Amino acid sequence: MTLTLQDLTFIKNNKKILKNINFSLEKGETLGIIGPNGAGKSTLFKVIAGLGIPTSGNVIVDNESVFDKPHLQSKIGCFIENPVLYPYMTANENINIHLNLFKCKENEFSEVLIEQLGIEKFKDLKVKNYSLGMKQRLGIACSLIHNPDIVLLDEPTNALDVNGVKVVKDLIKYKTKNKKIILSSHRLSEIEELCDKIIIMNNGEIVEQFNTKERSTILKTHYIINVDTRKKDLKLNTPVSDLQSEGSEYKFLVSSENMNYVLKELGEKNIKIISMANEEKNLEDYFMERIMN
Ligand SMILES: Nc1ncnc2c1ncn2[C@@H]1O[C@H](COP(=O)(O)OP(=O)(O)OP(=O)(O)O)[C@@H](O)[C@H]1O
């Protein structure tokens, strides 16, 4: 079973909030969506979950449109920031309402959720007395309680303490096998750690998507090279960046794919290499370069 988004566009109040979004997700894959504030991430989650009807395009589950076949919505579980919970009810009562909503009973997965998210400890306490983190834990449990195949988690670790973050990360890593997960977070290290695929969104559109397996070519590695030209100007045919000079010493960056070419050129030009270091870029560095600058 595949989840496919086909040319999804969402216009609200004459504003194009989502523009031609295309991607697909297979069983067992986790997709991370990152982007600056206002990029359209939450809107995308809402549209996939059926909380907004797209202006054009489609969301396909099991070869059928979720907008034509509303029962397919029950295959989707969606946690979006600030979950709606009943404040005068306990955790148990909130969970039961969600189970009833999806016409299901407690199941193996719901037990895992309750146990893993530490809800046992406050199951009989009314939600109005909860801390932000407790609400977040219960919100995640309620949205996934019906054991959906497709799990949408919009900033699930936002209000959580260190232990809560670990609990949610472990849940995604170990307890949601065979599901399709879409996750957003402003903690980019979390996305890097948990996701197989990453989409970078900006202004309502996908500006880049890649598999984390390709990260070595996309995110990583460049080399910092220090050379001494022995009083000559440095002229290279190989593309390098961030060229800085001090006297006859030059420092520059070169990508891993251009490394061999630059070494060959330096050798041919008899330029002395003083030092060479490889520097790993992480998703945060890449994101800052690509989007925030
Ligand atoms: N109902 C609405 N009517 C008009 N504009 C909206 C509506 N909902 C969202 N927007 C706009 O759509 C854009 C995307 O908002 P969205 O909340 O999806 O972004 P986001 O990437 O989730 O941001 P953040 O990282 O801050 O949570 C914003 O410019 C927002 O103002």
TrEMBL record:
Domain of life: Bacteria
Keyword entries, A-Z: ATP-binding, Nucleotide-binding, Transport
Location of the ABC transporter domain: 3-228
PROSITE patterns attached to this UniProt entry: ABC_TRANSPORTER_1, ABC_TRANSPORTER_2
GO MF assignments: ATP binding
Protein name, as recorded: ABC-2 type transport system ATP-binding protein
Similarity annotation: Belongs to the ABC transporter superfamily.
Pfam family, one: ABC_tran
